[in-house]
Amino acid sequence: MTRNNDTISLKRIADALERLAPAKNPLPDLHLANAFVWNIAPDRLTPVSTVNYVDLDLLQGIDHVRAILERNSRQFAAGFPANNALLWGARGMGKSSLVKAVHARICQEGTIAPPILIEIHREDICSLPRLLALLAAGNAAADRRIMLFCDDLSFDGTDNSYKSLKAVLEGGIEGRPENIIFYATSNRRHLMPRDMIENERSTAINPAESVEEKVSLSDRFGLWLGFHSCSQDDYLSIVYGYMDHFGLDLDREDVRSQALEWSRTRGARSGRVAWQFIQDLAGRHKINL
């Protein structure tokens, strides 16, 4: 009788512990959508039914880098070798817009199986290994090509999460999965502020090694695509491109002077400034975009 009671007690304890244990994360169904957002606490992939993107043809003034990223992405989506890419440079010049636009174009054409775009937030970079483990579990992503995307990636002096990214880019002893590629955007070519790099050189016991460990992170990206502030002609081309796309039948000379004045008040010329001007212009003329 005592043995039976002991068995019952142990079973109750085991059941209680199982209830207290965190629930296992369900394997993601990557056929629900072509885009997802990675969220943590708890870890999960949230499907995005409609991605907010700009048509690829509207991204003006970045023809060279646009062609390179589109070619690299098509190679990857078709199952051929491709590189991780770091899109760095001036704010508002379409770095993140280009990633989403290229993905959307490949999905729309339907000539090759559409890759999945998974966005991971900058503050969640340290969870990258968990994301890869979840994708690998049960071959959940075996038949899909996956573009991991982090917008506005950068690190400060006290942030060691770059080590997680290094491991993912190089793949450790297992190697990076062939069906996964990583795209990141940043205002900094080396992903770290210049003053931090200089501080490392001046304070580290072995400055060369300390700086090299951090700066070499960007070397793990096979493609460095630089985005620079646009010229006046490029800025106006972007404005006119939006006008044509949305059918804004307005006097171009008048729009030109307004667009230049708008950029002067903002102290910058970029694709973002051009889009903000177009929104203001359309609103003043009671036109829906």
Could you list some keywords that capture this structure?
single chain, 289 residues, alpha/beta, Rossmann fold, seven-stranded mixed beta sheet, 7 strands, elongated
Walk me through this protein's architecture.
The chain has 289 residues and is of the alpha/beta class. The protein folds into 2 domains: 35-227, Rossmann fold, CATH 3.40.50; 232-284. It is built from 10 helices and 7 strands. It has a 7-stranded mixed beta sheet with strand order 2-1-4-5-6-3-7, covered by helices on one side. Helix 2 (63-77) crosses helix 3 (95-109). The longest helix has 19 residues, at 2-20. It is elongated and about 90 Å long.
Question: What is the topology?
Answer:
Layout: H1 2-20, E1 35-39, E2 44-47, H2 63-77, E3 85-89, H3 95-109, E4 116-120, H4 128-136, E5 146-150, H5 162-170, E6 180-186, H6 194-203, H7 207-215, E7 223-227, H8 232-246, H9 252-266, H10 271-284
Parallel strand pairs: 1-4, 3-6, 3-7, 4-5, 5-6
Antiparallel strand pairs: 1-2
The rounded Rg comes to 24 Å
Helix content: 40-55%
Number of structural domains: 2
| Shape, principal axes of CA atoms | elongated
| Structure summary, number of beta strands | 7
Strand order of the largest sheet: 2-1-4-5-6-3-7
Q: Indicate the mean pLDDT.
A: 83
Please identify the top-level CATH class of the largest domain.
Answer: Alpha Beta
Q: Please trace the helix and strand order, writing H or E for each element.
A: HEEHEHEHEHEHHEHHH
Instruction: State the major sheet.
Output: 7 strands, mixed
CATH superfamily of the largest domain: P-loop containing nucleotide triphosphate hydrolases
CATH topology of the largest domain: Rossmann fold
Q: Which structural category fits the helices and strands?
A: alpha/beta
